[in-house]
Amino acid sequence: MGRIVWFERYTHADRADVGGKNASLGELTGAGLPVPPGFAVTASAYAQAREAARLTGELAALVAAADPGRPDTVAQAGGRAREMVMSMPLPDRLEAEVREAYARLCEQCEMTDVPVAVRSSATCEDQPDASFAGEHDTYLWVRGAGEVVSHIRRCWASLYTDRAICYRRHMGYPEAGQAMSVGVQKMATPRAAGVAFTLNPHDGDRSQIAIDASWGFGEAVVAGEVTPDSFLVDKVLGEVGRRTVSHKEIEYRLTDQGRVQRAAVDQARQDSPCLTDEEIKAVAALARRAERHYGCPQDVEWAVDTQLPAPGNVLLLQSRPETVWSRKPRQQASAPGGNYMTSIVSTLVAPLHARPRAAGDR
Amino acid sequence: MADRFPSPFDITTPPGAEGWQELYSYSSVFSEDRRDYEESMFWFMDGVHTPEAIPPWDATILEFAIIVLSQYNTRHYLIPPALGVDLRFLNGYMYLSPVGVTDPAEIEARVPHFMQRAGYYFEHWDELYASWMDKVRVLIGELEQIRFQPLPEKEDLEVITGGLGTGSGPELLAQYNRLVELTLKLWNYHFEFLNLGYVAYLDFFGFCKQTFPSIPDQGIAKMVAGIDVDLFRPDDEIKKLALLAIELGVDDVFDGAPAAALEAIAERPGGARWLEAWAKAQQPWFNFSAGSGFYHSDKVWAENLEIPLGFIASYIAKARRGESLQRPIQAVEAERDRIVSEYAELIGTDEDRATFQAKLGLARTVFPYVENHNFYVEHWGHSIIWRKMRELGGIFVKEGFFSGPEDVFLLGRNEVPVALFDLYHGWAVGVPSRGPKYWPREMKRRGAIMDALRAWSPPPALGVPPEVVTEPFTVMLWGITSDSVQQWLGGADTDGTLTGFAASPGIAEGPARVILSADGISDLRDGEILVAPLTAPSWAPVFSKIAATVTDVGGIMSHAAIVCREYGLPAITGTAFGTKTIKTGQRIRVDGNTGKVTVLS
């Protein structure tokens, strides 16, 4: 693969070079889902830069020497490694290519200095058995080619945050060959955003889509800084079965200076639902499409954009395999060896409404 | 919040209703004789079938219904955890108490019998159901054969020359006994399949809830519900008549009073063809009650032709506005198939998918009975029973016992033979019967008692609620659950919301129209939300007008729930206090997804 690849030009099969997060964006774009446009800076691009600076061996050895049992050694090794990455010279051609791709994105979005999210997409991320949730850095509302280049470098460096090092060691991933792809994607300006699971996270019910939503950028929900509104939608009927409107005090929103900032939600919106029924259904339908595409339960990030007209304003930002229930074996509901009458008897003797409810339900 | 309902023994007789107990069977009222037992039980008022005080003869059918339901649970199929349902009348209202089997060893002992007996019915369902259809039609024919003849001045000569050896007096008594006997038999047929039908449905329901804990009840119901259901036939027939009137160019006769339409149409070219279709539709589909069918006063279409004629007029108006009258059967069918295949696809293992299909198959096998029996028994059968009783009442009127044929319903089922005997006696001896002096006085007294009972407001339940309601039929048919019991104990929510069963999905807002009986349904305006104690199948034509339905009683399989799903309207059933809390004209919001009704203004 090249060093810069547009989302629509690759699929999940290229995940070794674009990382889990980017692979997913490419795959979803290719499937026709409404993903904001963007491109990936491949892991090979990072590896080449590191190779050119002759840092590959040195970085691996440095980190391998740290002892996760002694946080000070991790902090020391991590700090050194990040400094090395931040100061390593970029091959000229790579920087030119990034600037060129960003210029094309601006053109495509008909904006000068289109705001983008610059996201880490490590090649070991988003495995079905390891989410690496929040281990690497993401930068929001980055504008201008120079800023984009410098944030790509920061993402690379976040491969060596203390927590990422510890997590890799804990999960048994080898240091050698760790690489980092970076995604550069047009940012939505969300009125509301959040996550959706294509199953009920309380009981693993595959017929439900659970949506957590709050005002502004989705970061408040993802980071758990706000108790979100939550909705449960039946996948098949498309109906909103349960809705909990929460008291939402903070949101991430854009300041006049073009910064994404944590701010207080004004009184009037604190206790109002942040999505209309149509939007809830649209988010659910979007999550369902992502699940159908992948053929397994998904954990998606979405946003309702203020700039776009409905119904095209519900955007898919991310979709990854759900990791908690997917690892558990599906519970068999049929009684082994019984005929239908045995099952009828058990329904009668222990009617469902008399059985204990699944934890967290209701 | 109270933890129990009033004891039946704390309930006082409303003023003016003193002596009401004598109007009902001695075994069907609360008494000191069984006080300990009666006080230990939980009783709920059956508002699904009988929201109003029950006239003495009408109580017959309820006693028959409940005794047969019980008999099939307890003695025929040996439903492992459930015996019958006990019944009491209190101040003229029917209270029921489901009786469970509490001893686990006894439950265990009933299992093999249940498996053998219910299993036999499930395995031979189609042939048994086909034979049920024949049986019930024969029975209806036998009911039609019942004749109540006035006693003649003298017996016909043929009685003598034919050596008959009996006469009109014994025949009159025999015909009444026959009517009672056939009524009991009709109710035996009613429950021959129903309990098992519910069992199979609950089994599928349980499997779905286990596989998909948050699946909405209506999702399950939609997978099972039939599309071509006899209960919808009367409504379909009048739609066809409305369209035929337009086609023949005779629809304008319906613009005036319904009663005049039949005379006017006969004069018109094409009118004869329409009248032929009209006559044909009536048999049997106009044996259709405007109520639940459990009251003699429920209006039957066949005897109140202004009801179907009125509906035809409103359908004609609708068709003229270019709206389609036909139910979107193909769309409903395609949607049902989609729902089934999508849930099936979400099931984790092939084995579970096979189980799902098998259970769905059984539920669909039994469901036509669950959906259709109601027409044959409560509508067709009852229409004849009430009509025959009125004929009998007419004989009493002729002999001066009653002032109108309806008076007969103020007699208990076992008082009728006594009054007939009085009549027979006077006729046989050739002296005055006591009846003409006795009954007019008695009718006045009983009429006043019934008025006092009707004005009384029955509490939703009595006695000690169970920790958890498990009896399957109580949950399924009456919609009584642990939650609804708790809600009754707490009264209506204080924040202007009511909660019930989310019986049909969707959200609607609009002005409420509180309708307490079938007579009021013509008041409904387009876009209003119907708020009623319950709804009956014959209200079908109003469902194309209204925006949503809220009922006091009923579960997810109640009539309102079934019809609203069919019409795609939001419905909330079993709110307990809907008609008491909501006022006509208030704006309300009905959320059929969550079961919440909110009064907006």
Condensed summary:
The complex is a heterodimer of chains A (362) and B (601). By secondary structure, chain A is α+β, with helices and mostly antiparallel strands. Chain A has helices at residues 15-30, 43-52, 56-64, 71-87, 92-108, 145-157, 162-171, 219-222, 267-270, 277-294, 340-349; strands at 4-6, 38-41, 116-122, 138-142, 180-186, 190-197, 208-215, 229-234, 240-244, 250-254, 260-264, 298-305, 314-321.
Structure explained in plain terms:
The complex is a heterodimer of chains A (362) and B (601). Chain A is α+β, with helices and mostly antiparallel strands and 362 residues long. Chain A has two domains: 4-186, ATP-grasp fold, A domain (Dna Ligase, domain 1, 2-Layer Sandwich); 190-327, D-amino Acid Aminotransferase, Chain A, domain 1, CATH 3.30.470. Chain A has eleven helices and 13 strands. Chain A has helices spanning 15-30, 43-52, 56-64, 71-87, 92-108, 145-157, 162-171, 219-222, 267-270, 277-294, 340-349, and strands at 4-6, 38-41, 116-122, 138-142, 180-186, 190-197, 208-215, 229-234, 240-244, 250-254, 260-264, 298-305, 314-321. The model of chain A is unreliable at 128-133 and 356-362 (pLDDT under 50). In chain B, helix 6 (168-211) runs antiparallel to helix 14 (416-429). By secondary structure, chain B is an alpha+beta fold. The model of chain B has no long low-confidence stretch (mean pLDDT 90). In chain B, the strands form two sheets. Chain B has an eight-stranded mixed beta sheet with strand order 5-12-11-7-8-9-10-6, with helices on one face. Among the domains of chain B are: 8-115 and 455-463, no CATH class; 230-329, no CATH class; 492-599, Glucose Oxidase, domain 1. Helix content of chain B is 51%, strand content 10%. Chains A and B meet through strand 9 and helix 11 of A and helix 3, helix 6, helix 7, helix 12 and helix 13 of B.
